[in-house]
Amino acid sequence: LELTRENTVFTTKGQCGYFSVLRMPSNKIRIYYRSSFPETDVGWSMPTRYLDSDDGITFSQPEDDIIFEKSGICHNFLPFIETNPDAKMPLKGVGGCHWKRKDPYWNLRDRHKDVEKDTSATLGYRGVYIFDSQDGLKWNLLQKHPIVTRRHPGFCTRRKQPSEFDSAISCLYDNKTNKYRLWVRSNVKQDVRFIQETESEDFYEWTPFKLITFKPIFDFKSNYYFPSFYRHPDNERFLGLVPYCNEKKAMLRLCISEDGHKWRKIEDVLTESPIATGRKKKLKNYSHSVNGYVLSADKKQIYFYVHHNYFQLKPKRPVKIVRYSMDFKELMKF
Fold first, then answer.
1. Is the pLDDT of residue 44 over 80?
2. What does residue 262 show for φ and ψ, rounded to 5 degrees?
3. Cis (ω within 30 of 0) for the bond into 38?
4. Which residue in 102, 136, 187, 289 is deepest, having the highest Cβ count within 10 Å?
């Protein structure tokens, strides 16, 4: 399988992140992302913005492009097309993080028992929240408390982790099982990340988390930086393009699953050296996948988008979103 570079569709700068792409019900192609401006004292609350395109190549940035602001929801908001036949709205969304710095109730005490914890000040910082929308621009918060937090049954994380759900997340409705699926990062060890999943029949109540399985077997030393999973074009399986790195290489790992729990590698693409960040020189991916894909009108090509220079880790280079193509028939052989 070959991934061919096609077009640079967006250029910016700063610590933007966690882009996603959707073909909207209107047939427009829309990109959502956590922007890098205006800067705030809490970087995770920089606004969620969007770009629109008719062809997936030329994107316009509307003057009023802010979806969310001043909330932890901004950090990783992910919209998806609703395929539940009983749903009232065509779009659903998830977003939010659980951050010790912004949650006064991170460590629950007896004195907190009767205190209202889900307020405007804590919105977006106490877990993952749920939304629906008619047009993808105005979003309705479905309940004021998060669906999952760091205390959710089965949640896998290391001790003394100061934040959770602090990366991109993936969510969809599975029409085979008639359940919603949610995948999030698992901080399994210091500087080691993997992926865990949960599911729900109604989008409100979720089963205990469990780690996904992967071939090749996860060694608890390398990093699957965040989930980037979505419905396969055959509508029977699941497809993913996940940022993966070890001490020697960083890449995007194209993977596939029959059930959303057991995953296997198809191909590693865009292999490069990992970049060392921070005082501890933690190794990270320079390039991140944009959640989602776009099929060409003739279904000969599948287009993936890639976020190069994540968080502008290379400060002298711009941040770019680049469109890549892959032969659709070749992909469907796997």
1. no
2. -95, 115
3. yes
4. 289
